[in-house]
């Protein structure tokens, strides 16, 4: 089924430009961008016709796809002070020159533009556990990575920002309200201490839960239920009776 879906997919995309803006008060604003001229996913007619012409059974159910991406590159560029971060349209227009090569972007590229071709072969006749076998081959032109000290610092800042966002997603429920953080109200030190303590204790309780006697007792109880239900199932099958899923579905869901 998956190979059939792959065989019917045809994709063609032109002039893609993805922009991410990172702003720091002390270091200015930077733009991280991903650009490529075209992306296409088509059936490899040459290999497909060759496979269909062969009489061997192993070649009858093959799907050949070719993915071409031209001039894909990643860059990091510092914004000028007069550019408005809130004007997305202006930023896009300004960066369009970058993607067209009109602003001498070579010094700003982290990965210089290159072309890549990926060949995907899905073989239905060689299924393993009901899943088709896939073979992928990638060919790309010269891959040049260049980075200066400022760009490296911005990449590290970006990674740090994503790490903080992940921590806020995890511990945001314990964070004090924003109204108390904007100004130092009375007792703000206690609120921050409570925030740190609740976050740490949440991790500690999560780890200790799996080693508690209550948790181990529940696991043993679920295992005993599973063994009893499986034994009952085998007995019913030996007697030629039909096992109704509704009788055991809830128990199996709890165990699994």
TrEMBL record:
Q: Does the keyword Transport apply?
A: yes
GO BP annotations listed? protein retention in Golgi apparatus; protein targeting to vacuole
> Ranges for the Chorein N-terminal domain?
2-235
Task: List UniProt keywords, sorted A-Z.
Answer: Transport
Q: Which InterPro entries match?
A: VPS13 (IPR026847), VPS13_N (IPR026854)
Q: What is this protein called?
A: Chorein N-terminal domain-containing protein
């Amino acid at each position: 089924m998956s190979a059939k879906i792959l065989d019917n997919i045809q994709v063609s995309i032109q002039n893609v430009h993805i922009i991410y803006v990172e702003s720091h008060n002390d270091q200015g604003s930077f733009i991280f961008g991903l650009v490529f001229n075209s992306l296409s996913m088509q059936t490899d007619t040459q290999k497909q016709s060759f496979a269909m012409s062969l009489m061997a059974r192993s070649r009858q159910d093959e799907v050949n796809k070719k993915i071409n991406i031209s001039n894909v590159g990643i860059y990091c560029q510092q914004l000028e002070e007069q550019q408005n971060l809130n004007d997305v349209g202006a930023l896009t227009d300004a960066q369009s020159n970058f993607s067209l090569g009109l602003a001498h972007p070579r010094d700003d590229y982290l990965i210089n533009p290159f072309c890549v071709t990926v060949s995907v072969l899905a073989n239905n006749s060689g299924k393993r556990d009901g899943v088709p076998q896939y073979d992928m081959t990638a060919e790309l032109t010269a891959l040049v990575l260049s980075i200066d000290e400022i760009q490296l610092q911005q990449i590290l800042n970006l990674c740090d920002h994503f790490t903080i966002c992940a921590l806020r997603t995890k511990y945001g429920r314990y964070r004090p309200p924003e109204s108390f953080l904007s100004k130092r109200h009375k007792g703000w030190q206690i609120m921050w201490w409570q925030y740190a303590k609740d976050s740490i204790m949440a991790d500690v309780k999560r780890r200790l839960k799996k080693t508690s006697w209550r948790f181990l007792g529940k696991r043993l109880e679920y295992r005993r239920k599973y063994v009893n239900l499986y034994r009952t199932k085998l007995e019913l099958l030996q007697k030629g009776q039909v096992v109704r899923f509704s009788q055991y579905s809830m128990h199996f869901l709890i165990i699994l």
